[in-house]
Amino acid sequence: MRFGVCCQLQQAAQVLNAGFDYVELPAGALFAGPGDPDWQLLSDARVEATNLFVAGDLKLVGPERGDIRGYAERVIPRAAKAGVEVMVIGSGGARKSPAGFDLDQAEDEFIQAAAWCQEIATPLGVTIAPESLVPEETNVGNYLGDFARLLARKGVAYTADSYHVLNQPGNHPGEPSYWAAEIPFLPAHVHLGDRPRNCPRRDDPEILGFSSRLLELGYSGRISLECRWENFEEELPKALDTVKAIFGG
């Protein structure tokens, strides 16, 4: 497995100096601008994954749906050139179904948008991996298991995010069948944070249920800590030890 941290570019050196393998940076902020980013700076940062794929002003669903292909054709090749291999699509505002718009249609449109992105990403060696989000963030793709299955029908992978699945409606993480239902097959990527979105404790039973299911499936990919920090640089070494202990690294 490879362990990383969701952060900003200016924090990358701190993450790597603490012993992490890579950083996960915001795609839209880095690659959606009119000009090229600083390729050398990104190479030194070992950016292997991205999040925050698109801002809310480009709608992925609904009557004001934007030029998704045009955006993806600009952002994904730049990310690939920087060494990115996995691009997470959360982007709650961009994929939120507006009032009065059919929710099922919005879900279909988002899945199709992800499939278009994957068409562009595949020749570049990049995997598009949307994540489920909680209702406070969006109303499209709130249940990880269902979301993963819908994406798979279009040939799109998914990200398993522990914070989101622990906070989705009707969650029952203490039941043995819960994790098998919500992580039905191998994800392409993993985000790790506990229910309050802090760095997990190694004895947290909810996180251990999440990690046990991933290990049962044979997951051996990247795990990005996506959590709150009180003192970022000081907490990083302990966080790395913790995540390695949780996953047996």
Level-2 CATH architecture: Alpha-Beta Barrel
- The structure class reads alpha/beta
Number of separate strands: 8
CATH superfamily: Divalent-metal-dependent TIM barrel enzymes
Report, as a whole number of angstroms, the end-to-end distance: 7 Å
What does it look like?
The protein is α/β, with parallel strands linked by helices and 249 residues long. The mean pLDDT is 97. It has a single domain (2-247), classed as Alpha-Beta Barrel (TIM Barrel). The chain starts with a strand and ends with a helix. Helix 4 (68-81) packs across helix 6. It has an 8-stranded parallel β-sheet. The protein has 11 helices and 8 strands. It is globular, with a radius of gyration of 17 Å.
Summary, kept brief:
With 249 residues, the chain is of the alpha/beta class. It contains eleven helices and eight strands.
Please name the defining characteristics of this protein.
249 residues, alpha/beta, TIM Barrel, eight-stranded parallel beta sheet, 11 helices, 8 strands
What are the SSEs and their pairings?
Blueprint: E1 2-6, H1 12-17, E2 22-26, H2 27-31, H3 39-45, E3 47-51, H4 68-81, E4 86-89, H5 92-95, H6 103-121, E5 127-130, H7 144-153, E6 159-161, H8 162-166, H9 176-182, E7 189-192, H10 205-217, E8 222-225, H11 232-247
Parallel strand pairs: 1-2, 1-8, 2-3, 3-4, 4-5, 6-7, 7-8
